Input
Amino acid sequence: MRKFGLIGYPLGHSFSKKHFSEKFEKEGIEAEYELYPLEDIEEFPVLVKNTKGLEGINVTIPYKESVMKFLDEVDEKAAAIGAVNTIKIQKGKLKGYNTDYLGFKTSLVKLIGANPMPANALILGTGGASKAVQTALSDLGIQFKLVSRRPQEGQLTYEDFNTSTPQYLNTYQLIVNTTPLGMTPKIDELPDLPYQQLTSDHFLYDLVYNPLVTAFMQKGIEAKCWVKNGLEMLYGQAEASWEIWNK
Ligand SMILES: NC(=O)c1ccc[n+]([C@@H]2O[C@H](COP(=O)([O-])OP(=O)(O)OC[C@H]3O[C@@H](n4cnc5c(N)ncnc54)[C@H](OP(=O)(O)O)[C@@H]3O)[C@@H](O)[C@H]2O)c1
Output
């Protein structure tokens, strides 16, 4: 039996397990998708050695970076991002990929559609998902500024939009929320920006997918912006993993 699974800790409700189990059932694929909660990433090599038929692994918090030291090879994009969320096992060799990057990039291109590619973007948040988004925007030729609560050199902070010499949202046609603000159950939260400056030329992409319309997206809807939640990215990263495991 072909085997796939997810490592992380703790592993509660898992989109990936549900997604792949339903897919295997629906498409008559003889395979299993298991959850492998690892208290310590040092348990990873033993898991790989002892799990017969293991062909592919998804990686979630907190191991997307620390798993890299166990891999024989890391795909160029995953190396640039500095995080792996998909591993392919072939002839005993482990290769790492980042399909968050692929899922986001494909979904963003769909959102832009026939419109000209935005020249400048804001990426809200500087965590793991932000790094995949940064690489995708660079590859699409979109310049971006990072917005952080504790900005490093060259980054903006939320207060920069509200000073005597403020930053204006019209400089940035694309705004990507990579912070967890607005996620269920705290659905009223949203990044602190001057949303009254939004116009119908703006694209708002929220990586949050629960609720389907976040408070951040709602501000965009009110200003007639193009908006998207993170659901397509979530399905996109899972399907990209499946393609990698089968190529
Ligand atoms: N749709 C998808 O497929 C997909 C994929 C991956 C992640 N996500 C979602 O993306 C979000 C971020 O995930 P992640 O793995 O990147 O998390 P993470 O590594 O914890 O990073 C989140 C970043 O958001 C900022 N942040 C955190 N709390 C904040 C707050 N209260 N106010 C303002 N900014 C805050 C921080 O940046 P600063 O410290 O610089 O402010 C932090 O680095 C989560 O909601 C996750 O579910 C979705």
User: Anything to note?
Assistant: DSSP finds seven helices and eleven strands in the chain. The chain has two domains: 2-97, 101-233.
